[in-house]
Amino acid sequence: MSSAHMTMTLDPASAAAARTKAVRSWRWSRALLGLMLPVALALLWEFAVRAGFSNGRLVPPPSVIWNTLVELARSGELWVHVRATVARVAAGFALGVVAGTLFGAISGYSVLSRRLLDPTLQALRAIPSIAWVPLFILWFGIFEQSKITLIAVGVFFPVYLGVMGAIMSVDRKIVEVGRVFRLSGPALVRRILLPAVLPAYIVSLRSGLGLGWMFVVAAELLGASEGLGFLLIDGQQLGKPAQIVAAIVTFAVIGKTTDWIIAAASAPFLRWEDRFSARSEGA
After folding, report:
1. What pLDDT is recorded for position 152?
2. Predicted local confidence at residue 280, as pLDDT
3. Whole-prediction pTM value?
4. Is residue 281 part of a domain?
5. 105, 162 Cβ separation under 8 angstroms
6. CATH number at residue 218
7. Cα(57)–Cα(52) distance, rounded to whole angstroms?
8. Is residue 180 domain-resident?
9. Is residue 24 part of a domain?
10. DSSP-based three-state secondary structure for 54
11. Would you state the pLDDT for residue 273?
12. 213: burial class by Cβ within 10 Å (0-12, 13-18, 19+)?
């Protein structure tokens, strides 16, 4: 065996660097693969408008939408609306996650609490988001409190259901093993329940965040003068379809970015999972 081959075989630093490079390359290729469909659709629509198959009046081509975004960004108007919407979603998401986690944990852990709380919460979950608007205006006025509360309501229910369902679905045998080893209550929660619940909890956070972005549009109907929802309504009233689509694209980009942040932040805590998807992706 040659000395070079032995060095490549025995040098752990080189092997680790090669693995890191391969993982980064795979992540970039996956990101580019995810962009293929929207980019292909955008190019197809641009071609259809330029070729005369559509006048692009109601659905402007990507070039017009891009120019609209650039103009809004240069004027500073886009950043004002983005900051307002992101701040509202962040505050509502935080409140909804705290409340949903607390009530979900109580209902999942205690049968009595579940029978007491769950029927009422399930009934409230069936109420459309827009139905809360007049009530929140009456309670909190048209200021930020009403908007943040409406977003928190949207985030609350998927987190509540995810936490409660995850706790209820924990394998009883795993809990019994913890009791055999005489784990205390806090130790049982930390070493048994939390790892078992965490994957479903992350999914519920991502679902709640998605609903938070949906509810912020309804929230910004409450007399808002800033925000991407206001930009949508302003575009509708002024007959500017390019502005409407630009606001929708901005929603999509920011929503996907925040979802990616949650997924990336939670990945180190889920490395212990031996999932089929994880094995196939690493192949």
Report:
1. 94
2. 46
3. 0.80
4. no
5. no
6. 1.10.3720.10
7. 12
8. yes
9. no
10. coil
11. 62
12. buried
- In the chain (283 residues long), the average pLDDT of successive 10-residue segments reads 47 63 63 80 87 82 91 91 94 95 89 91 87 84 86 93 87 73 70 80 92 88 80 87 91 92 83 57 44
**Six-digit token string for 9:** 């075989």
Q: Which two tokens stand for residue 267?
A: 């990945």
Looking at the structure of the chain, the number of domains it has is: 1
Cα angle: 259, vertex 261, 266; to 5 degrees:
100
Check residue 16 and give its pLDDT: 59
**What phi, psi does 52 have (nearest 5°)?**
90, 10
Q: Which residue segment(s) compose the domain that 119 sits in?
A: 61-269
| Alpha carbons 119 and 208: distance in angstroms, whole number | 20
Q: 200: which 2 tokens?
A: 């479903």
Q: Is residue 195 part of a domain?
A: yes
**Over the range 78-116, which residues count as b (16 or more CB within 10 Å of their CB) and which as e?**
bebbbebbbebbebbbebbbebbbebbbbbbbeeeebee
